[in-house]
């Protein structure tokens, strides 16, 4: 064995094995144990449980409320991903255009992301239920007269609005970095060639920030699928379970209904869905990236 | 070759060191946690976990008081966590089960296999508690696993001053003996320009509290309640044509009709609703005596408040219309699965202290009535004083089914049904079918 190879092995043991062990301990073992629990009827507290095979998975897919919740989650994710990215790009474009006090604006738009989900949900709960209805009473605008959170469709809209409000500031920062990295010569050359603003954005800027789009879309997808805290504090799944997204549903199954095995099975299904969609999304948008 | 062996040995040592250090972390945790619980100085260490929000400092003060009187016992107070039951499950799964916990009845029964059966011949102070409250914590094996720490009542909270100002008459809650009496009162209050009733449109209030009245005292005692629920589960009863169901829902319709929140019934915010009550915009509120905590900060000290039963039928002879549904919500339980006998003995002493040691502090902390018939405490809440008068005169009905027979997802599943009924998205028959389907799906 060559000296170099031996050195490599030693380096591997010194630098890769310890983190691998920790990673295995905090990620792999819980994952495998979690998968194992989906095969049991454990209630989360008991010392004993039975192995019931794939019964939990069968229950999950035959449970109409789960499928219902899955569909709602897809609708929610679609709008959140599209709107937060579009808004993030628009904000980033505006705040890289050289307007006055743009760094203060950047901070302000990012600030929404600094508030914890639970707190933010409660704040918006008050805004939708009490502040907006007061404005509705004063101005006689029909849509503001009753709380958005008490109507199934509007509650979902409210949930999307709040998530987009929070997420777009974060995505904006990544897009700002993307736009700032476009070489000014390229933009200048395009302008000399006579592009208008739209062409400049569509043909030059957007292709140049495709790597940011990949990251932001991936982050928005995974964050939206796992959305829990805002869902809990803003609507608690209501009115009458019309906004119960998957993560909240899993929590309810595992911890309110004492069906830990089934809740875990639901979580595995969610994990698989998110993994598949993320892989597809990343591979598609990677292809569009310009090097 | 020599070097290769050295590398191998080195990597093995590295791996072993990692594993050992991790194992060391694990064992350190267990000795610090529940473990055998005996410290170097011969102290027995126990822990207390509660599901009562916002009272950490008061509980810690009680723990300190106990430790001062019992220097051989150390109580670790586990701070309140809003995930309540989830945190409890986590503590159990991680081998850190609290020695003493204050939990809801369903949670205690679900976890009874890990808990210590409590015997009233040993813990004689349990005899001071009404047997029907203690029975709520009876496991499938007939043993008692919890000692109730409080009793609460659900019913109509009323602002006597608002009612009298609106109607111009003196108000006596005992004159409301039927649904029609309630309607007549509501009409008078409404004529005085005040919203007579108020419902908070949250699933727990509608689905757990209001709806539970279909399954509790109106059926009779614990046995009748259980028999009725079993017959619903077995599909022997058609809820749609059930008299009690229709009676309770008729009363619900009265609440919906005169509801202060009727323009947007599902805006469920107990704090805002409490303010509507104290500011005199609404006269009566379907809630419970714990609702005083929503009123307390804004209540006019000159206003008189109280709680009265919900008239569930239209027959003045039906005792239920004059009785308050009283239930023990939470109880002390002691772990038996991860504790030593010394710890269990210390825990029993500690529970006795929490029950009897400083009842005034406990009553102030809980802001609901204590379950002890001869408790010598002053309740600051006028609503609890009102509950106490019903308890003392025996005008209470059994809420056995509410405490014990309703599954833990009852409130969220059927709360959704009641919300749909309240906003007119579901008619009464459809609601009955949905609730019946829920019961039939239970094993």
Task: Walk me through the structure.
The complex is a heterodimer of chains A (291) and B (443). Chain A is an all-alpha fold and 291 residues long. Chain A has a single domain, classed as MetI-like fold. Chain A has helices spanning 3-37, 55-62, 64-94, 102-111, 117-139, 142-145, 152-180, 184-192, 197-208, 210-225, 229-235, 246-256, 260-287. Chain B has two domains: 44-151 and 328-375, D-Maltodextrin-Binding Protein, domain 2, CATH 3.40.190.10; 153-327 and 396-440, 3-Layer(aba) Sandwich (D-Maltodextrin-Binding Protein, domain 2), CATH 3.40.190. Chain B is 46% helix and 11% strand. Chain B has a five-stranded mixed β-sheet with strand order 2-1-3-9-4. In chain B, strands 5, 6, 7, 8 and 10 form a five-stranded mixed β-sheet that branches. Chain B has 443 residues and is of the alpha/beta class. Chain B is globular, with a radius of gyration of 26 Å. The chains are: A mainly alpha (291), B alpha/beta (443). The interface between A and B is large, with 36 and 43 residues.
* CATH homologous superfamily classification of chain A: MetI-like
Strand content of chain B: 5-15%
CATH class of the largest domain in chain B: Alpha Beta
Spatial separation of the terminal alpha carbons of chain B = 67 Å
SSE string of chain A: HHHHHHHHHHHHH
By oligomeric state, this entry counts as heterodimer
Rg of chain A to the nearest angstrom? Answer: 24 Å
Output the structural class of chain B.
alpha/beta
Strand content of chain A: under 5%
State the shape of chain A.
flat
Let me know the CATH homologous superfamily of the largest domain in chain B.
Answer: Periplasmic binding protein-like II
Greatest interface (CB-CB under 8 A), with counts per chain: A-B, 36 and 43 residues
Approximate helicity band of chain A: over 70%
Average of the residue pLDDT scores of chain B: 84
Low-confidence stretches of chain B: 20-36
């Amino acid at each position: 064995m060559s000296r170099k190879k031996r050195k490599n092995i030693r380096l591997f043991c010194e630098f890769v094995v310890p983190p691998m062990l920790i990673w295995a301990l905090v990620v792999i073992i819980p994952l495998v144990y979690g998968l194992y629990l989906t095969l049991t009827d454990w209630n989360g507290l008991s010392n004993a449980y039975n192995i019931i095979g794939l019964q939990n998975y069968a229950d999950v897919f035959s449970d109409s409320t789960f499928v219902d919740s899955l569909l709602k989650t897809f609708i929610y994710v679609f709008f959140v991903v599209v709107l937060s990215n579009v808004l993030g790009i628009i904000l980033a474009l505006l705040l890289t255009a050289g307007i006055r006090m743009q760094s203060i604006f950047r901070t302000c738009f990012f600030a929404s992301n600094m508030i914890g989900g639970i707190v933010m949900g409660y704040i918006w709960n008050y805004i939708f239920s009490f502040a907006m209805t007061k404005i509705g009473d004063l101005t006689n605008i029909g849509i503001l007269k009753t709380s958005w959170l008490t109507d199934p469709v509007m509650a979902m809209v409210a949930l999307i609005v709040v998530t987009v409000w929070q997420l777009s500031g974060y995505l904006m920062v990544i897009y700002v970095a993307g736009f700032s990295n476009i070489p000014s010569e390229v933009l200048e050359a395009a302008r000399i060639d006579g592009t208008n603003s739209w062409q400049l954005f569509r043909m030059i800027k957007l292709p140049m920030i495709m790597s940011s789009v990949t990251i932001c879309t991936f982050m928005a997808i995974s964050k939206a699928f796992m959305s829990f805290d805002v869902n809990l504090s803003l609507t608690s799944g209501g009115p009458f379970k019309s906004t119960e997204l998957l993560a909240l549903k899993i929590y309810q199954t595992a911890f309110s209904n004492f069906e830990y095995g089934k809740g875990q099975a639901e979580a595995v299904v969610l994990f698989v869905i998110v993994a598949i969609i993320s892989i597809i999304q990343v591979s598609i948008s990677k292809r569009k990236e310009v090097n | 070759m020599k070097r290769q062996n050295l590398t191998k040995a080195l990597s093995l040592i590295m791996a072993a060191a990692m594993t050992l250090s991790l194992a060391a972390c694990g064992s350190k945790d267990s000795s610090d946690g529940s473990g055998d619980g005996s410290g170097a100085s011969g102290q027995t260490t126990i822990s207390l976990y509660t599901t009562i929000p916002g009272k950490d400092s008061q509980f810690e003060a009680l723990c300190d008081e106990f430790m001062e009187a019992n220097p051989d016992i150390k109580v670790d107070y586990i701070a309140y966590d809003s995930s309540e039951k989830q945190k409890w499950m986590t503590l159990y799964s991680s081998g850190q089960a609290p020695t003493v916990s204050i939990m809801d009845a369903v949670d205690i029964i679900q976890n009874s296999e890990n808990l210590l059966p409590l015997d009233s011949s040993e813990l004689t102070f349990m005899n001071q508690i009404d047997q029907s409250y203690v029975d709520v914590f009876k496991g499938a094996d007939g043993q008692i696993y919890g000692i109730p720490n409080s009793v609460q009542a659900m019913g109509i909270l009323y602002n006597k001053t608002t009612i009298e100002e609106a109607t111009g008459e003196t108000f006596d809650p005992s004159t409301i003996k039927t649904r029609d009496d309630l309607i007549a009162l509501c009409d008078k209050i409404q004529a005085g320009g005040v919203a007579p009733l108020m419902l908070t449109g949250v699933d727990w209030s509608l689905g757990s509290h209001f709806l539970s009245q279909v399954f509790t005292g109106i059926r009779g005692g614990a046995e009748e309640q259980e028999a009725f629920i079993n017959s619903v589960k077995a599909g022997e009863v058609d809820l749609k044509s059930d008299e009690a169901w229709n009676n309770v829902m008729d009363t619900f319709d009265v609440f919906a009709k005169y509801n202060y929140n009727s323009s947007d019934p599902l805006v469920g915010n107990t704090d805002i609703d409490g303010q509507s009550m104290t500011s005199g915009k609404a006269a009566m509120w379907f809630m419970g005596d714990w609702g005083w905590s929503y009123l307390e900060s804004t209540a006019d000290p000159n206003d008189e408040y109280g709680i009265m039963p919900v008239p569930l039928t239209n027959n003045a002879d039906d005792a239920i219309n004059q009785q308050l549904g009283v239930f023990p919500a939470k109880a002390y339980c002691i772990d038996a699965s991860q504790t030593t006998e010394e710890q269990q003995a210390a825990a029993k002493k500690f529970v006795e202290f929490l029950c009897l040691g400083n009842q005034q502090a406990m009553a102030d902390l809980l802001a609901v009535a204590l379950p002890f018939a001869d408790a010598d405490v002053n309740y600051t809440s006028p609503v609890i004083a009102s509950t106490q008068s019903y308890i003392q005169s025996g005008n209470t009905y059994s809420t056995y089914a509410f405490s014990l027979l309703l599954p833990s997802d009852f409130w969220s599943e059927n709360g959704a049904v009641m919300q749909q009924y309240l906003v007119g998205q579901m008619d009464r028959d459809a609601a009955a079918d949905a609730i019946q389907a829920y019961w039939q799906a239970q094993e």
